[in-house]
Design goal:
Elements lengths: L12 H11 L3 E5 L2 E4 H17 L7 E5 L4 H12 L3 E4 L6 H11 L1 E7 L3 H4 L11 E5 L13 H6 L16 E6 L9 E5 H15 L6 E3 L7 H4 L1 H7 L3 E3 L6 H11 L3 E4 L1 H13 L9 E4 L6 H9 L3 E8 L4 E5 L11 H8 L4 E2 L4 E6 L15 E7 L5 E2 L3 H7 L5 E9 L5 E6 L4 E3 L2 E3 L1 H8 L5 E11 L3 E10 L7 H9 L10 E4 L12 H9 L8
Parallel strand pairs: 1-10, 3-4, 3-5, 5-6, 9-10, 9-11, 11-12, 12-13, 24-25
Antiparallel strand pairs: 1-2, 7-8, 8-18, 13-14, 14-15, 16-17, 17-19, 19-20, 21-22, 23-24
Helix pairs in contact: 1-9, 2-3, 7-9, 10-11, 11-12, 12-13
């Protein structure tokens, strides 16, 4: 391709080349007792790229990875797009049927599978229409359940010589990420190189990552490509610390041992961390920024994280926008707020990140912006550099998502006078009781304040008089107790009485692999055998 003096293709693959040049001997990746420098990291990526080329992979071909947050998953984020192919990173907690659907729908030709998840893939091998090659990733087990190809052996058979980047158009598809599919078949969300580049840079700008930063992989790399931190950390020459399982003891061990400065996770990860810290009297001895998204975090959750010495940054987005799109940017005046008011301010979804584009709250019927009064409810809509190309092989769903020239989030929110957005609910979660709107997020935030509550979720339950009323599902902290009456009365003392749950059920909450509570399962449970509520 002819060089152009005043233009270059935006692709996050180029981040690695720059960091190898500047930080070649610096540690790029840490996993257990393994430490790879940036130069070694790049050599492994070249070997993987060469092996894929040996298999006959062409530009645009889809390569699937079913793998936890170990080095091969990071390497895939560079080697696959380097040769112009598309990475399909699959949720490691999906069922065999779900994995089968994604592998077939994505047209994947090769599947790299960590041995822990081989038992999911083995039963469906005969159903797969295009996957011809399986490669075992033997991290915790040396068996070869999916044929005789093994990841490290495949890499070792290839040269470490440079592989030139095959990307000639920044709008080429870099990754295909599948949504959770809670209301139907999962949809394949197409990311291009330009969007991944700009979103990665937005992330590191907002979180302050630099060459001294150490990033712990508590966020699944299969989820929005790790919110693009898979590329952003590398861009700045930071260190990736891989973590196979997200367990509180391992998290804090890594934080101390590697002097971790940054990590990300859904509110459920924050809850796990704060509970462990409280039970084990943990106090950090160095700064740590915890970035959270996935569900609106209750102010109490933020307070609990800050109690052991971490700072919390709240961001907001969806798979369709490469992960985070907005950030609750810090305001100087917040220094004067008390702890509770500060946590409440930090729990808002905020303003668009600096490089991504635009965001507004609009009337769902007219598409006109709602009043900036912190009261009028509308839908969050977005547009800009990090909006997906569309849904793979689903033009109808793409057009529906892009109605009116905006991406429709499905999240209901208000716009505050300071131009900060705050989510009140998903459109499908808002409770309409006797004509009054009840935000489940508002009720959950109150319940989180109860000293015995670890987690909670509010869903609508049928009511003959009011149509539907709130019901609380609550998980209590270990060793703590509370009754249904106590929880309800606690809510009534902090909310308008009609917003308080009419019933409380105790027990663990169903969750996705990224820590989001699966409210749709709770709703289905409540409305089973009754007139169906729209999900």
């Amino acid at each position: 391709m002819e060089q152009v003096v005043n233009h270059d293709i935006l692709t996050p693959i180029n981040f690695l080349e720059r960091s190898v040049t500047v930080y070649g001997d610096k540690t790029a990746v840490v996993y257990k007792d393994k430490h790879y420098t940036y130069r070694e990291f790049q050599s492994r990526i070249f070997q993987l790229a060469r092996y894929l080329l040996k298999l006959g992979i062409d530009k645009g071909d889809k390569i699937a990875f079913i793998c936890p947050n170990t080095p091969p998953m990071l390497e895939a984020h560079y080697a696959i797009p380097l040769i112009g192919a598309t990475l399909v990173s699959i949720n490691i907690r999906l069922s065999a049927n779900e994995v089968s659907y994604i592998l077939n729908h994505s047209d994947a030709k090769v599947a790299f599978v960590d041995n822990e998840f081989a038992n999911v893939v083995s039963p469906i091998k005969d159903e797969l229409q295009q996957v011809k090659t399986f490669i075992n990733i033997c991290d915790v087990d040396t068996a070869l359940p999916l044929g005789d190809l093994e990841y490290e052996t495949c890499l070792a058979s290839m040269s470490t010589e440079r592989v030139e980047c095959a990307v000639v158009d920044e709008k080429e598809i870099i990754a295909l990420n599948y949504t959770s599919g809670t209301t139907g078949k999962p949809k394949g969300v197409m990311y291009h190189h330009r969007g991944a580049y700009l979103n990665a840079m937005s992330e590191v700008l907002e979180t302050g990552i630099n060459a001294k930063s150490v990033y712990l992989w508590t966020l699944p790399l299969f989820h929005c490509n790790g919110w693009c931190f898979s590329w952003g950390v590398t861009a700045m020459g930071g260190t990736h610390v891989c973590l196979r399982k997200v367990e509180a003891e391992e998290i804090f061990k890594s934080i101390k041992q590697e002097q971790v400065s940054h990590l990300c996770g859904a509110p459920t990860v924050l809850i796990t961390m704060s509970s462990y810290a409280e039970d084990n009297n943990v106090q950090l001895d160095h700064p740590l920024l915890v970035t959270t998204a996935g569900a609106p975090p209750a102010p109490t959750v933020i307070q609990n994280i800050q109690a052991f010495g971490a700072e919390v940054l709240h961001v907001y987005g969806l798979t369709e926008v490469y992960g985070p799109h907005s950030v609750c940017a810090w305001q100087p005046g917040w220094d004067q707020l008390d702890e509770q008011a500060l946590a409440a301010s930090k729990s808002r979804q905020g303003v668009p990140m600096v490089l991504v584009g635009d965001m507004d709250v609009v009337d769902v019927e007219t598409m006109q912006p709602v009043p900036i009064d912190g009261k009028t409810i509308g839908e969050i809509v977005m547009r800009g550099n990090n909006i997906m190309v569309g849904y793979y092989k689903n033009e109808a769903a793409t057009q529906e998502a892009f109605k009116g020239g905006w991406f429709h989030s499905g999240d209901l929110a208000v716009m505050h006078p300071d131009n900060y957005v705050q989510i009140l609910d998903r459109a499908k979660d808002i409770i309409i009781s006797g004509g009054e709107n009840i935000s489940t997020v508002e009720v959950e935030s109150v319940i989180f304040k109860h000293p015995s509550v670890l987690e909670c979720a509010i869903v609508p339950t049928p009511d003959e008089k009011w149509g539907e009323t709130p019901k609380a599902y609550v998980t209590l902290k270990e060793g703590k107790s509370a009754t249904e009456v106590e929880i309800i009365e606690f809510c009534k003392s902090h909310l308008a009485r009609f917003k308080a749950p009419k019933a409380v059920e105790f027990g663990p909450l169903p969750k996705t692999s990224t820590g989001k509570v699966q409210k749709f399962k709770l709703r289905e449970q409540e409305w089973q055998g009754k007139e169906r509520r729209v999900n």
